[in-house]
TrEMBL record:
Pfam families: Peptidase_M28 (PF04389)
InterPro entries: M28_fam, PA_dom_sf, Peptidase_M28
GO MF entry, a single one: carboxypeptidase activity
Coiled coil regions in record: none
Protein name: Zn-dependent amino-or carboxypeptidase, M28 family
Keywords: Carboxypeptidase, Hydrolase, Protease, Signal
Phylogenetic classification of the source organism: Bacteria, Pseudomonadati, Bacteroidota, Cytophagia, Cytophagales
Leader sequence segment: 1-30
Domain called Peptidase M28: residue spans: 269-475
PANTHER family associated with the record: METALLOPEPTIDASE M28 FAMILY MEMBER, PEPTIDASE M28 DOMAIN-CONTAINING PROTEIN
GO BP term, example: proteolysis
Length: 499
């Protein structure tokens, strides 16, 4: 065959192979469906009841490492026990406790700019809890454009920049926002700046009010992790729009003395199982993953200080509970393992810990199906994280999910947020990631971000419980297929994430 013919035929062969794999997955799904699944056990009435209980004010936002997270975890374990699931945590319990380490800026730290004295966590925020001692002249460089910087000698000085809210649409989301601020600050430090001060303009003030809340707490990690290390660096400070007028005044001195301290807190994973029915396959597990924590009690916004996290991630929790209810009613051939991860908002700490200390042999986990924020946006919209390379680590698992969507769920799938080029890096921000890094086939089901993300407005009455129910059924039927097929889903050869 000549080269030109090969070039024409190769795409057709690729398409034919992909279609064949999808058809095979559909056949596998149809066969498993014929095995009398318990889809009818997943009911919107149960999901709505559980959602309003878990995301109500009683659990005060379930902040990771707090008593509120532990109380919510006990409540979830009680529901699982009542459904008939078996404990699969440590020592015959539903729980796997672990410690998280918090590093924060001390109350004795101080920041002065000219005659203005500011307190971290109130009227000024440092982007990282790092030891610093800076006493330097302050220079204002406008918006920090190359033209602005060309007019000022910044070496040995603290640099103040007006931060504008007129960037791309993604800038309203936290990861892109902080990534931009940190990367630009690092560039200025390389050029000789001793500190960088971001000052919100009127358009950026809403970002300041919304996203500085997380900076109050400091950094978290598993003990000994990278975020627990105390280090020195040039401070990066973020100020509100009210500072913009006086920050421009010439001849001001920037004085910043920062110290840090660390604490350990308990968090917990909730682990339950439904044993499989097949004598050989029951020692393998399909893992249904989610996280129970959110942001807890924080600065009040419009009079509301409880950040309930109804979508993030009570929606994923109640769907996973419903899936557990279905497997308890009708077990699959493989066992179902249900894991609610603690301290996800602190950096995927619960899932990272579980992957390092699994309560079942790691090699026995055949697939992970993760539920992350599944109750908002258009009724027919959803996404699979891990659907496309380089994030896809199991074509078998992805095709199983796509076959169910095609046959039953009928969601219009967004693929943009799974791309490595997306500025939010959404694939890297939920509990499927540690499993994927450990070469366990893993995908996440999500309905993506929305304006109430990480605000007190993420309340249960804003959740589309019909949509949560439909996605719970989608996840369940995908897992039912994986639990009952004769051979386990395969890991794609050569899988490697971009970071």
């Amino acid at each position: 065959m000549n080269y030109l013919n090969k070039q024409k035929i190769r795409p057709l062969l690729t398409l034919a192979i992909a279609m064949s794999m999808l058809v095979n997955s559909a056949v596998s799904y149809a066969q498993s469906k014929a095995g009398a699944n318990a889809l009818s056990a997943i009911k919107e009435s149960d999901i709505k009841r559980d959602l309003f209980a878990l995301a109500g004010d009683h659990f005060r936002g379930r902040e990771g490492g707090s008593l509120d997270e532990l109380k919510a975890s006990v409540w979830i374990a009680d529901q699982l026990r009542a459904m008939g699931l078996q404990p699969a945590g440590d020592d015959g319990t539903f729980f796997q406790f672990f410690h998280i380490q918090r590093t924060r800026i001390t109350e004795t730290s101080r920041l002065n700019i000219g005659t203005h004295q500011m307190v971290h966590g109130q009227d000024a925020f440092l982007l990282a809890p790092a030891i610093a001692s800076v006493d330097a002249p302050l220079v204002f460089v406008g918006k920090g454009t190359p033209e602005d910087l060309a007019k000022v000698d910044i070496k040995g000085k603290a640099v103040a920049i007006a931060f504008s809210g007129t960037g791309p649409a993604e800038i309203s989301y936290r990861r892109f926002l902080f990534g931009t601020m940190n990367s630009r600050a690092a560039e200025l430090v390389k050029k000789g700046a001793l500190a960088v001060v971001w000052v919100s303009d009127t358009q950026a003030q809403s970002y300041f009010e919304r996203w500085t809340t997380g900076l109050e707490r400091g950094r978290y990690d598993l003990p000994g992790g990278a975020n627990t290390r105390v280090f020195s660096q040039a401070p990066t400070v973020w100020l509100p729009a009210s500072a913009l007028e006086w920050i421009k005044q010439p001849g001001q001195q920037f004085t910043n003395v920062v110290n840090v301290e660390s604490f350990n807190y308990p968090s917990v994973n909730i682990v339950a199982k439904v044993p499989g029915t097949d004598p050989k396959l029951k020692d393998e597990y399909v893992l249904f993953s989610t996280h129970q924590d959110h942001d807890g009690v924080r600065r009040a916004v419009a009079g509301d200080s409880i950040w309930n996290g109804a979508d993030d991630n009570a929606s994923g929790c109640v769907a996973t509970m419903a899936i557990g209810r279905a497997f308890a009613q009708k077990p699959g051939k493989r066992s179902a393992l249900i894991v609610f991860h603690g301290a996800e908002e602190r950096g995927l700490l619960g899932s990272r810990y579980f992957v390092e200390h699994p309560t079942v042999p790691k090699e026995s986990i055949v697939a992970v199906l993760n539920a992350e924020m599944i109750g908002r946006n258009a009724p027919d919209s959803a996404a699979i994280l891990g659907q496309q390379p380089p994030h896809r680590n199991s074509t078998d698992l992805v095709n199983a999910a796509l076959a169910v969507n095609q046959s039953e769920a009928h969601f219009k799938l967004d693929t943009l947020w799974d791309k490595p080029s997306h500025p939010e890096g959404w694939y890297f921000r939920s509990d499927h990631l540690p499993y994927a890094r450990a070469n366990v086939p893993a995908i996440a089901f999500t309905t993506l971000l929305h304006p109430d993300y990480h605000t007190p407005k993420d309340e249960p009455d804003r959740i589309n419980t019909d949509k949560v129910t439909r996605i719970a059924k989608w996840i369940y039927l995908t897992g039912w297929d994986v639990a009952n097929r004769p051979t386990r889903v395969r890991l794609d050869e050569g899988f490697k994430l971009e970071r």
